[in-house]
From TrEMBL:
InterPro entries: Glyco_trans_6, Nucleotide-diphossugar_trans. CDD domains: Glyco_transf_6. Keywords: Glycosyltransferase, Manganese, Membrane, Metal-binding, Signal-anchor, Transferase, Transmembrane, Transmembrane helix. It is found in: Membrane. Belongs to the glycosyltransferase 6 family. The chain crosses the membrane at residues 11-40. UDP-N-acetyl-alpha-D-galactosamine binds at residues 65-67, 70, 155-157. The keyword Transferase applies. This is Globoside alpha-1,3-N-acetylgalactosaminyltransferase 1-like isoform X2. Its main location: membrane.
Amino acid sequence: RKVTMRFGQNFYLFSIIVIVSLLGRPDVATTTLWLAPIVWDGTFDQKMIDNIYKPRNITVATTVFAVGKYVRFLKDFLESAEQHFMVGYRVHYYLFTDRPDEVPAVTLGEGRQLTVIKTATSNRWQEISLRRMEMIEKLIEKELTGKADYIFSLDVDSKFYAHWGAESLGDLVGVLHAWYFGSSRNHFPYERRPESQAFIPFEEGDYYYGGAVIGGRLDEVHKLAKTCRMQLDVDRANHIEAIWQEESHLNKYFLYNKPSKALSPEYLWDDTKWKRSYLKVVRFSQVVKNYANIRPNP
Ligand code: UD2
């Protein structure tokens, strides 16, 4: 009888361990060192999250920049967003482009709308990427107050492949860059020249964040965009451009203003990258592109 009881107890314990491991993600860190969640598949209950956010009737502003030949990415971006991005929520895309006539007609779901904002053409891709901060700052100031609750800025040369929902919302949200996830900080491509406002010394740094996804509440993202824009202005006056343009400034900002939520590389994969075992699902991924063909300058 004793033997049966011990077997029963052990089996019970073993089952609990299996269930806990299946429910959580023992293979990856699920919080940062400042206890912000890192969102991975298996760490949230979508229904529970929707029960929290749906009654709030929120609007998510989403900025997309498609300047020059990058308009060619819009169709796939928007069509896949309509299938997977914040489905069931009000989404307002703000599309900045110098080619409004080439914006594809994409059928949007209920509660979703798109506003095209004409921007200047540029003959330097670095400038296009850099100027996003200023445009996000101004958009929030002039347009969004009272009209949206959260904002995401997303790279257009990307596609959604699976659910991206309200689990991604937070006060200030960054994404862990797929290529540097798991690397030690001295391998991060931070700006290392002290002359730049984006400078981060080798002994500092938590993660390397991708510039392709920035999110959060309007006031937090406004503060981020304004601060980065001001740092970019100082760099410009000093004739220095950070190694990865606004992404370098974003990394500096996140070092001293920690995100309240970090999205795992599921939320910014790269189609050219070999899939890792920790990657249970690819939600959003950079498409393969020929830089020489699509950028206005090398
Ligand atoms: C990385 C970042 C990107 C940005 C950039 C800065 C990732 C995955 N990507 O991407 O967010 O921080 O480094 O150097 O983290 N764009 C145009 N027309 C152009 C060029 C750019 O519209 O001619 C826009 C477009 O929205 C694009 C974005 O700027 O998605 C970033 O440019 P990129 O994708 O060419 O930059 P990349 O791949 O170096």
